[in-house]
Every structure is written in C-alpha cells, then in structure tokens.
Design brief:
The chain is 28% helix and 42% strand. By secondary structure, it is of the alpha+beta class. The termini are far apart.
Length: 152
C-alpha cells in the first residue's frame, strides 16, 4: 500500500513541482509511531529554500485533498533533500559526476555491499565509481540506495 501511495502522489504532484521550476527528488510515505507522514523532497539549482517549500506545500496540499489518494490522516512535509541528497534517477548519476557518493547494493558486488567513492557517471546500465583508486562498475538494478556525501 505504501508504494502505491508513493507512486500515485508522485505522478500527481510532479507536474505541479516542475511547473514551479523545481525538481521532485523523492516522496516518502511512512508511519512513525501512530502518525503517518507524507514527505516531499524538492530541489533546484542552488538549493530549494523555505519559500519554495511553503509554496509547494500549499499547492500540492489542496491537490492531494481533492484527489483523496490517502485513506488515513497524514502530515504533509515539504523540504530540501539536504547536502547528502539521495540519487534516485539514472539522470542523477550523470548530473553529479565528480561528486563523492555512497552506494548500497541489494547484494554483494565485487565482494561488498557498500561503496563510497567519486561518481564517474553511468554507462549503459552500470554506475561507474572511482573506488579505492580503481574504477568499478555497479549494475544499476542492484543499487538499493545511494546518496551524495559531503566532501570536506
């Protein structure tokens, strides 16, 4: 059910977010304690600010209420993904070339399930990282999650 809500919300709100010059980075629908939360993560070049988050919250709140996609009461939160933004789409692996990333795989690849290295991009269906001085290729379909790391 949670995945169905995420997919329905994504398809409903993504055009609204894009129309305002922003990117919908991620959607989470999660229960914490007794409360349900619908979290939208938005971004833009230079980073989304509080005004962007407020505007999207107002715009999509009404649309979500009208669509009545979510059966139980929930709290809507809209925020920026932060410095360690998740990499969710194939385009992210091209856009953030040269950045330090952390990648977790569904099963071991090259003997490991976690990699931190510099993103070199994507070729075909493989994500390319510079990992411990070597170039490695990770099958995209084996990536469980990935995010940028702050590089000091």
């Amino acid at each position: 059910m949670q995945q169905n809500v995420v997919e329905a919300v994504t398809s409903l709100v993504e055009p609204v977010v894009h129309a305002r010059g922003l990117e919908l980075v991620d959607v989470e629908y999660i229960k914490e304690g007794i409360h349900w939360f619908l979290r939208l993560y938005i971004d833009k070049e230079g980073g989304a600010d509080l005004d962007d988050c407020s505007e999207i919250s107002r715009a999509v709140g009404d649309i979500l209420d009208e669509a009545d996609l979510i059966p139980q009461a929930y709290m809507l939160e809209v925020s920026s993904p932060g410095l360690e933004r998740p990499l969710k789409k194939k385009d992210d692996y091209l856009r953030y070339r040269g950045q330090l990333v952390q990648v977790f795989t569904r099963e071991n690849v090259h003997g490991y399930g976690e990699f931190s290295g510099y993103l070199e991009g994507m070729e075909g269906e493989e994500v390319i990282l510079e990992y411990q001085g070597e170039q490695i290729r990770l099958p995209y379909d084996l990536i469980a999650r990935a995010h940028l790391l702050v590089d000091f």
